[in-house]
UniProtKB/TrEMBL annotation:
It is found in: Cell membrane. PANTHER family: PROTON/GLUTAMATE-ASPARTATE SYMPORTER, PROTON_GLUTAMATE-ASPARTATE SYMPORTER. This is Dicarboxylate/amino acid:cation symporter. The chain crosses the membrane at residues 12-33, 53-72, 92-112, 159-180, 201-229, 235-255, 314-331. InterPro entries: Na-dicarboxylate_symporter, Na:dicarbo_symporter_sf. GO terms for cellular component: plasma membrane. Pfam families: SDF. Keywords: Cell membrane, Membrane, Symport, Transmembrane, Transmembrane helix, Transport. The lineage of its organism: Bacteria, Pseudomonadati, Pseudomonadota, Gammaproteobacteria, Methylococcales. GO terms for biological process: dicarboxylic acid transport. It is a multi-pass membrane protein. The keyword Cell membrane applies. One of its GO terms (molecular function) is symporter activity. It comes from Methylovulum psychrotolerans.
């Protein structure tokens, strides 16, 4: 491990510098060209391609990495009781953390009331939000859990479906013992190869972060931060409080090792923040958690599940957004309705996993359920990327805490 000890620090520094340069370059473009300039659209298109290349390369890694690590983990665990025990501990933590995120979001948005201070013309009630009409139904939920084809699930990067297939495959390998050993060994090699591919792809991360930030700021300008400053500031404050609570709880079990965990995951968090994508951090996060001391078998199961069930930052954003829009329209939501909304969000947020802009689609469905005009989402579309940066980084932090805690509870933390 000696050759790798300094590389993460340098990479974090490069990503941080790229983030700042992207903001500066984007603002320079916005001021010099203006949002309506056709040249700006062409520059943004090029910048978006640079980011898209990185996200595509990361997505290329995720499916084989999840499949290989999970199958090897299942096979090494040896029995279904161990898998069930780890899965149950993980799901209990996910449920608790999600509920905490939703409740904290509801508390803060009622305390700060950012919607009441919004002084802009509201869109007409019949206006469309422009989002695909994907309703979070029971059939959609089931469809996103159970694969009809592993090839299709891998092609679409449906993590939850890959997890289900991998668990069946891994448990079957464990039960066959020596007969399945060559396959397990092959997949173990595949996992290490994909992690090596990850290290190559991560060299491109600063370019992707620079391009992503420059594209957002050049179109919106730093001025959009001032226009929505109160809402953005209060949401990010909420994310800091949430991370503090999760980190504080982790301290009870991990003690001062929480600081070491933060040092290990700062690069994946910064990567998720810069690209506004939790997925972009997955391969690097898996690598860093194992370097921290988490058990590879536990990480192989907990992390993929967390990416479907434990998106703490996104959960907080959903309550924040729904109540913000209600406040902006002057619609009063009594406490019973708000608690019902939390219950709805707790389950419907799992029904659109893998759908682009899933948080916004869940919010749109929740708005219509409570007779709040869905067009209110137009108030947030302009700053969704800025908010997505914070919630993506928080999602990475939450899943890191989950992996470390379950490893600790399994007495498998090195």
């Amino acid at each position: 491990m000696t050759p790798h000890t300094q590389a993460p620090n340098r990479q974090t520094l490069y990503v941080g510098i790229a983030l700042l340069l992207g903001i500066a370059f984007g603002e320079a473009l916005n001021v010099s060209l203006g949002a309506a300039d056709p040249l700006l659209s062409q520059i943004v298109a090029v910048l978006s391609v640079l980011t898209d290349i990185f996200l595509r390369l990361v997505k290329m890694i995720i499916a084989p990495l999840v499949f290989a690590t999970l199958v090897v983990g299942m096979a090494k665990m040896g029995d279904i009781q161990t898998v069930g025990r780890i899965g149950l501990k993980a799901m209990l933590w996910f449920f608790s953390a999600s509920l905490l995120s939703l409740l904290l979001g509801m508390l803060l948005v009622n305390l700060f009331e950012p919607g009441h201070a919004l002084h802009i013309a509201l869109p007409p009630v019949e206006a469309s939000s422009g989002l695909p009409n994907v309703k979070p139904t029971l059939s959609n939920f089931v469809a996103h859990i159970f694969p009809k084809s592993i090839a299709e699930a891998m092609a679409a990067n449906e993590i939850l479906q890959i997890v289900v297939f991998s668990m069946f495959f891994g448990i079957a390998c464990a039960s066959l013992g020596e007969l399945a050993h060559p396959v397990v060994k092959l997949l173990d090699s595949l996992a290490h190869i994909m992690l090596k591919v990850t290290s190559y792809v991560m060299h491109y991360a600063p370019v992707a972060v620079f391009a992503a930030m420059a594209a957002v700021i050049s179109q919106q300008g730093i001025g959009v931060l001032l226009s929505y400053g109160k809402f953005i500031g209060e949401f990010y404050f909420g994310l800091f409080v949430l991370c503090g609570l999760l980190g504080g709880f982790a301290c009870l079990f991990l003690g001062r090792r929480v600081l070491s965990l933060l040092r290990h995951i700062r690069e994946p968090m910064l990567l998720a923040f810069g690209t506004a994508s939790s997925e972009s951090a997955y391969p690097k996060l898996l690598q860093q958690l194992e370097r921290f001391g988490c058990d590879e078998k536990v990480c192989g199961l907990v992390l993929p599940l967390g990416y479907s069930f434990n998106l703490d930052g996104s959960m907080m954003y959903m309550t924040f957004a729904v109540l913000f829009i209600a406040q902006a329209y002057g619609i009063d939501m009594p406490l019973p309705d708000q608690l019902l909304m939390l219950l709805v969000l707790l389950f419907t947020s799992k029904g659109v996993a893998g759908v682009p802009r899933a948080s916004l689609i869940v919010i749109a469905a929740t708005l219509s359920l409570f007779k709040i005009p869905e067009a209110g989402l137009l108030l947030l579309l302009g700053i969704d990327q800025i908010l997505d940066m914070g919630r993506s980084a928080t999602n990475v932090f939450g899943n890191s805490i989950a992996s470390a805690l379950v490893s600790r509870w399994e007495k498998a933390l090195r």
